[in-house]
Design brief:
- It is a single chain.
- The chain contains 21 helices and 27 strands.
- Strand 10, helix 8 and strand 11 form a beta-alpha-beta unit.
């Protein structure tokens, strides 16, 4: 029996029997449809792999019901019967795994990525997308209501088991519900009963076109987390009404574009951040209530179900990171779950940039149809990996999975490379979840790791590798500023600060407002240091996801951290510096330390050791070029599949 017996109990959703309490929530992944909006092999295989992993229910994200509500350019289109054959092909691919498969129906309203946006009122979205939407007429409202019903009918005809109406996250239905986005003076605006009318009309139209046996779930916000928005009190009032209208389940989430709490929070936000909202709604209805919000650990999911806080748990990014999460939890091999680290970089950040979604820790996302599962190499080779950071460990793991004999060397006393240090500042600890996973994996696969072992000619001669993978990482580049080393301030790198090998004092200047610079500034401020950040570029921490950066900037605002951008240094003096910021001359004084965090340079020296040797050498990660962890892991897995 599973250690998570409540999580893996079956449940009834309307007329459906579901094998466990796990729902893969709808995610706008922005790939896998052709120019007409019909699904293709890329999306089909993406879902087939996740159904194979054992999830109980699964939703296709962002099914567009009407051309005016296209949230993103590469999401399934459901407004024409011509979509049905491709959807049926996807349903048939998933069917053998006994996963209940559904589609989330949505209309983006003012949060759509085009210039013909519509909404209940001509009020622009508070963030992310630009442009004033056109206020819908009564005739246009009727047209969109009918479009939801027609899309539901098409999903039923395609063979899906259920649908979910997206009434949350600031999209069109939520815009009708929320007072701050709906200032209509007709039957669809004003009092609560009028603002919920659009949603009730949609539900009734769907029922007319699909019958009462086809389960229809609804995703609502428990809180918009924005001034004048939808509140938990509103959600509690609405829940029994939706049950009376025939909702098969209620899926409780939170947030809109521009809200104080983001719909997709980063690692700075506690896991299970929205569970309390579902818990508040659950006693008011008898239909199942589903919760969401950074639920990544089986132990937490089990506690939620066991404690009666919700009937099911929705996961999105955790099933991007590891499609086999349900199977691994059910069979008790939780140590092998590849963890989401809450960075929001390749998933939400990429999608909002209108790029295909992926996953920092799982570069296979979106490439399942091209890659397949790793296959044994034609011949086992001796592979030497230099560097035990994320790139080196990920390459070692993939090479070992394919049957190679792998040795990892690192001159440090700990594995993890720069990621281990990146996990030290406040709120960044989940970065180590990836390192810990990779360490467990290479140990399970019999990979030898030798720490405190610099690579040299002797060890290469003794080991005689067929392949060398250089994943030696990068180090801070110290710029030459006039007067810097003649000042009386202590000059240190951000690595020395994180390693606690530097005495910083009470006031510090951080040179560089990239991700490393800002998290180090936060780290120092948390310890009581007054910090000024001098950044030469126009934007801070551009390599971070916007969601992750949002919370970091909130922290910096709450701390004694002052940020300057477009900085040009004039000169340093004993305890300060004069500079231009946005062309304005400024001077700061009274500082103890300068922390260098502006740029990194690759460590390529070990390459020289392989000169004139018959070794196939590959350079990956920061050793190739200093970038984000996404590139490190992606290149590592790629080379592991090639050798």
């Amino acid at each position: 029996m599973s250690a998570f017996k409540h999580l893996f109990q079956s449940i009834s959703i309307g007329s459906l029997k579901v094998k466990n309490r796990l729902l893969m929530s709808a995610m706008s992944i922005n790939f896998g449809v052709d120019d007409q909006g019909w699904v293709d092999d890329q999306l089909i295989e993406y879902f087939r792999v996740r159904a194979r992993g054992g999830v109980g229910m699964m939703l296709v994200g962002g099914g567009g019901v009407h051309p005016s509500g296209v949230e993103l350019p590469h999401l399934p289109a459901l407004w024409d019967d011509a979509c049905i054959p491709s959807l049926t092909r996807m349903v048939n691919a998933v069917r053998p795994y006994e996963t209940r498969f559904g589609v989330q129906l949505m209309h983006g309203g003012r949060q759509s990525y085009h210039d013909q946006k519509v909404a209940p009122s001509a009020i622009p979205a508070p963030a992310v997308v630009n442009g004033v939407p056109k206020a819908l007429t009564l005739m246009e409202i009727d047209e969109i209501v009918a479009a939801f019903g027609d899309a539901a009918r098409r999903c039923l005809e395609a063979g899906f088991d259920f649908i979910e109406i997206h009434g949350a996250h600031g999209y069109l239905i939520n815009q009708f519900l929320s007072p701050n986005s709906n200032i209509r003076e007709d039957a669809y605006g004003g009092p609560f009963d009028n603002r919920i009318r659009f949603l009730r009309d949609i539900m009734r139209d769907i029922r007319t076109k699909t019958g009462t046996d086809f389960p229809v779930g609804i995703r609502i916000n428990g809180d918009d987390y924005i001034d004048g928005g939808w509140t938990l009190a509103d959600a509690k009032r609405l829940a029994p009404i939706l049950e009376a209208e025939g909702a098969a389940y209620l899926h409780v989430s939170a947030g809109v574009y521009g809200s104080r709490q983001l719909t997709i929070p980063s690692m700075y936000v506690p896991q299970g951040c929205f569970v309390h909202l579902a818990e508040a709604v659950k006693p008011l209805v008898s239909v199942p209530v589903i919760t969401a919000g950074r639920i990544k650990l089986p132990e937490m999911a089990e506690r939620i179900i066991r404690g009666g806080q919700a009937d099911m748990v929705a996961m999105g990014r955790s099933l991007l990171a590891d499609p086999n999460w349900p199977h691994k939890a059910r069979t008790g091999i939780t140590d092998t779950i590849r963890p989401c680290i809450g960075c929001c970089l390749a998933c939400i950040h990429a999608v909002l940039a209108l790029e295909p979604g992926s996953c920092v820790v799982n570069p296979e996302v979106g490439r399942e149809y091209l890659l397949g599962d790793p296959v044994p190499a034609p011949a086992s080779k001796k592979v030497m990996v230099i560097g035990a950071g994320p790139a080196g460990l990920a390459a070692a793991r993939m090479a070992a999975l394919r049957g190679h004999q792998v040795l990892v060397l690192d001159e440090k006393r700990h594995a993890g490379g720069l990621a281990r240090l990146a996990a030290l500042p406040p709120g960044r600890g989940e970065i180590m979840d990836l390192v810990n996973f990779l360490e467990r994996e290479v140990a399970r696969l019999g990979v030898e790791i030798r720490l405190n072992t610099p690579v040299d000619a002797r060890i290469i001669t003794v080991e005689m590798p067929d392949v060398a993978i250089l994943a030696s990482g990068s180090m801070p580049e110290v710029p030459l500023y006039k007067g810097l080393f003649q000042s009386r301030m202590n000059v240190v790198t951000m690595l020395e600060v994180l390693e606690e090998n530097a005495a910083v004092g009470g006031k510090a200047i951080v040179m560089g407002g990239n991700q490393a610079g800002l998290v180090v500034a936060d780290h120092l401020a948390e310890q009581g240091c007054d910090v000024v950040v001098l950044h030469r570029k126009a934007h801070f921490a551009e390599e971070m996801s916007s969601n992750d950066r949002f919370y970091l900037r909130e922290r910096l605002t709450a701390h004694p951290v002052t940020l300057f951008k477009k900085v040009s240094i004039k000169r340093f003096f004993p305890h300060g510096v004069s500079f231009l910021s946005n062309g304005r001359p400024l001077e700061i004084d009274g500082f103890d330390t300068v922390v260098v965090s502006d740029a990194m340079t690759s460590i390529k020296k070990p390459l020289e050791l392989f000169k004139d040797r018959a070794v196939d050498v590959h350079v990956i990660g920061d050793a190739k070029s200093p970038r984000t962890i996404q590139f490190a892991v992606g290149e590592a897995e790629e080379i592991g599949r090639q050798i």
